[in-house]
Specification:
It is built from 4 helices and 5 strands. With 156 residues, it is α+β, with helices and mostly antiparallel strands. Strands 1, 2, 3, 4 and 5 form a 5-stranded mixed beta sheet that branches. Strand 3, helix 4 and strand 4 form a beta-alpha-beta unit. It is elongated, with a radius of gyration of 31 Å.
Length: 156
């Protein structure tokens, strides 16, 4: 004689098989729409232009990377200069901005590039909204000059 404990596993397995068969039998096939009836416009592909817009600004490197009121004043001047040079780019959005600080002192040039990057949203908020920035040193530029290479989004 079989004990009830020995049958419990078999009964459980049989119930699972029955539930599986009932589930398969109650499944319905999805309706596949006619491709000709679907008339959704294709989404525009957004990419990044491969040719950057080259912008150059001059600034007082010592005042910009310093601390205190002089740094804030120079930051405002950099914001105004950036606003002037980005005027032709109104209505666009920047995907990437490479900022090259100039001068023989690498530390000063890189810190200047970082401070200029901080001023981008002030200068053109819609242009630089969510833009990725990278800071570099360019020893061929004089101290107090920065070159910005701005890569714009495109929907073409």
């Amino acid at each position: 004689m079989l004990r009830p404990e020995a049958l419990a596993g078999w009964i459980f397995a049989d119930l699972l098989i029955v539930l599986f068969i009932v589930g398969l039998g109650s499944a319905t096939a999805p309706e596949i729409p006619d491709p000709a009836a679907v008339e959704e416009p294709l989404p525009k592909i957004v990419g990044m232009r491969q040719d950057p817009e080259i912008l150059t600004i001059d600034y007082d490197a010592g005042a910009l990377i310093g601390s205190g009121a002089g740094s804030e004043d120079e930051g405002r001047l950099v914001c105004e200069r950036l606003n002037e040079v980005t005027g032709a780019l109104q209505g666009e959005r920047a995907a990437l901005a490479l900022i090259f600080g100039g001068g023989k002192d690498i530390g000063v040039a890189l810190e200047s590039a970082v401070r200029i990057a901080e001023q981008l949203p002030c200068a053109a908020p819609t242009l630089f909204d969510g833009t990725t920035t990278r800071d570099f040193w360019d020893g061929s530029l004089p101290r107090g000059t920065a070159r910005l290479e701005v890569f714009l989004f495109t929907t073409d």
